[in-house]
């Protein structure tokens, strides 16, 4: 656990150093779009004293001064598939955002949706050297958590303390300064595929940018879309993206589970393309303007002109009813929601007190999706939009930008990444620190 603790601290220090320069870029690399936001940090209260505790809502001390999006290329299932295509798309988005901000950005904080995330629950406990809990005691309890054997080719992306217990009192958010004898910690660990992360880091380096932080798209979408009460009582955020559908569960304002389904809006577009025998671009337009998942009596009479440029007049002048279009889209959407339901059941979501489900992401804008989701998932479902942040353009306030806005909040206030405390020197041998530094040097 010591190696992990040190590498997480090193990542956090790099993120702080980038923000201390005053400007940092946010890069959301998705399967359908690549979004770049340039943030300017100002004000003396850039980092609060309780940096690491509490909700992120309403704490933004930054302003968006540049924003740009471009169509994603070379990304499938949230993972880089063609390096040169993705590099070109990232350069396009970053340069457009820099032009709007009228300054150059060297450091970026990125999020990724793929990489097959897996969640683990850890726990550790220590005897207190003094009766009052100090930062050193908290650090020792975090370091005492035993990291599971998550296998070769996996890498830790998030390691967050979600609960502290002092003697027999559990549910503590911040145990510092309290009196007791034994301190225990519960931790959530999220691992991802190492090769996917390394490809992303290499691609960003090829764009002449320095990576100052990395986050899971499912996590940051939940940060921006769930209101404070939902994060407290137990809610799930379902981020319907282009290539993947991210899933995160929050409890007591902490993420306690994350997963992803390798299906998304692009698969619905592909089904329309095959079913109607039209190009993908036409299928995307038809899905955006006429799509839905619940058919009514009026839809039989609503005809959709397909259009085309194949040169065959009869083929290009075809039209289909909206009912037929819904009949193509609904089975795929049901498949995505049923996969999500299976993941929620495996995570024990039924045992949470609130069980609120929030749909966000570009795919959540399909008309009638919230009603279909409530029937399949059997819970309270609402459509979520990201929190408003200062300077965000109107075009970037929709559900498709939940992960981008959440990444801004994550960058400004790293809620509970391994708390930035020093571990006492006698707790770890020198070789552990050297190994952690070598890991960081090789991977960043």
TrEMBL record:
Cell division protein that is involved in the assembly of the Z ring. May serve as a membrane anchor for the Z ring. Residues 24-225 form the SHS2 domain. It holds the Pfam family SHS2_FTSA. Keywords: Cell cycle, Cell division, Cell membrane, Membrane. It is found in: Cell membrane. Self-interacts. Interacts with FtsZ. It is a peripheral membrane protein. Belongs to the FtsA/MreB family. GO terms for biological process: FtsZ-dependent cytokinesis. The keyword Membrane applies. GO terms for cellular component: cell division site; cytoplasmic side of plasma membrane. This is Cell division protein FtsA. InterPro entries: ATPase_NBD (IPR043129), Cell_div_FtsA (IPR020823), FtsA/MreB (IPR050696), SHS2_FtsA (IPR003494). Its main location: membrane. The keyword Cell cycle applies.
